[in-house]
Structures are given as C-alpha cells and as structure tokens.
Amino acid sequence: MDVSIIIVNYHSEGLARECVKEFTHLHTSLSQEIIVVDNSPGRGLETILQERFPAVHYISMGRNVGLSRANNAGARRASGDHILICNPDVTPHAGSLDTMVGYLRSHPDVGIVGPRLHNPDGAIQQSYYRFYRLLTPMYRRTIFARTWLGKRHLQHFLMRDVSLDIPTSVDWLLGAVLCVRRKDYEDVGMMDEKFFLYMEDVDLCRTFWKSGKAVHYLPNATMTHLYHRESAGGGILDIFKSITRIHIMSSIKYFFKHGINTSL
C-alpha cells in the first residue's frame, strides 16, 4: 500500500463524506486506503460510509478525544508506506497526492511535505510559517497586529520576505494536509496528544526538525481548503470564547515544551 489517507471528523459529516468521495475518485497511480476517524459518532457518518464507500475503514473514538489522538489512532490502523493527514474540508487536485509521495521518495532528508492550499475562490491560502515567538499569539489575535511592531512581527512569521514558487524549506506547515512516511511518523513519536486542538501541527513539524527531518512546502501540489479560523479575533473579549481559550492553552503547552527560543 502506497498511502493511507486519514480524515478526522468532528461535526463535519457532510464535509467528511465529500472528502472521502473526492479521494475515492481521485486519479492517481498510487494504491491507497482511506481511514475515517470519528470524534463525533452517532451522527450517521458510519452508516453513510458503509452504504456508499464500503472500502473505507471507520474508527469511532466514542467521543471527542482531540485532533492529535484521533490522527494517531488512524495512523496506528494505517498500512500504507506514507500517511496523508487530511482535514475533512479539503479537496485534492489531480496529481497532488502523487507529487507529495514522489517528493518524499526522492528526498530522504525531508520528513513532512504539504501542498499549496487554495481558498474555494482560487486564491492562494497561507499555509506555511516560521516558528512562533513568544508574542506571536498576541499579535495574531489582538489590535496590536495593527501597530508597526505587530506588522513587522507578523510579516516575518508569515514569511512575506520569501518567494515560495518552488519546493521550499519552511519551519512548519498548516495541519490541514500533511504527508509523511509512516515509519518516520512512528519513529518521531506521532502527534503529541497533550495538544487537544491547535499547535499540534507546529509541534509535529518542530519535532521532525529536531529529529533531523526537514519540512518542505510543495507549490506544485495543490488542494482546496475551506478554511475558517474559529479562534481568530481582534480583541481581548475573545478570551471568553472556549475555542480561543483552547488555542491559548495549546500555545502555553507549546512554549513549555520547546521554550521561547525560536531557533532549533
């Protein structure tokens, strides 16, 4: 088996169904399996998959156990040489899967790759970043982003000084789509399950870098991502949103684990 595609569902049954359909019908030279991990069982997804996509492997987590733990459950079930971690709101484009797997096969020093993501309107979506500094979360979600220091900080974080028209080394990639070798994923230690939601992608990429495996952005592989930053905001009152508090706690866990030094 060339690649195992892992899709984690949480209250996104319609999107998960469409994502499975797109990968099932994707023209590819690779042998593949699809594994759907359900963090919100009992909402009909299992029945839909059994009726329409009987070859798909379905895993019920019983409850919402978080993104990292669900992805790891899928990875433990996987039999492919490569693993594609994929959000249910992603649509693959022709050739994207082959390009990512082919790149990993020809670049043994690279551990994680991600495609160029597009919004539904075709615009390129930000999906590559430099590592967080201590003040990055504050600048990203408060009015300080509009200050001169905030703008300069975020320009650096968003890699606005780099042209990414060819495969390029980056600090970390958005976890909407990540492709890794299954052996590397197992050897590095999988996703840290202390991260319930948010920062698990940053942490995974940093861990891969520390293990000697690079992270590369591949603009020649493309997918569409229906992205919505639920935790994004612009004021201190956002602290009262539960999703924002989860993001803040994940950031604190990240800095406790890796320190505030941005260098590896």
CATH class categorisation: Alpha Beta
Mean pLDDT: 92
| Amino-to-carboxy terminus distance | 34 Å
Ranges with pLDDT <50 over ≥5 residues?
230-237
Helix content: 25-40%
Fraction of residues in β-strands: 15-25%
Summarize the structure.
Helices cover 35% and strands 23% of the residues. It has nine helices and twelve strands.
Describe what this molecule looks like in 3D.
The protein has 264 residues and is of the alpha/beta class. It has a single domain, classed as Spore Coat Polysaccharide Biosynthesis Protein SpsA, Chain A (Alpha-Beta Complex). Helices cover 35% and strands 23% of the residues. It has 9 helices and 12 strands. It has helices at 13-24, 45-52, 67-77, 96-106, 136-141, 148-157, 182-188, 200-210, 242-258, and strands spanning 3-9, 32-38, 57-60, 82-86, 90-92, 110-118, 124-125, 128-129, 168-169, 172-173, 177-181, 214-225. Strands 1, 2, 3, 4, 5, 6, 7, 9, 11 and 12 form a 10-stranded mixed beta sheet that branches. A two-stranded antiparallel ribbon has the order 8-10. β1 (3-9), α1 (13-24) and β2 (32-38) form a beta-alpha-beta unit. The longest helix is centred in the C-terminal third of the chain and has 17 residues, at 242-258. The chain is globular, with a radius of gyration of 18 Å. Residues 230-237 have low confidence and may be disordered.
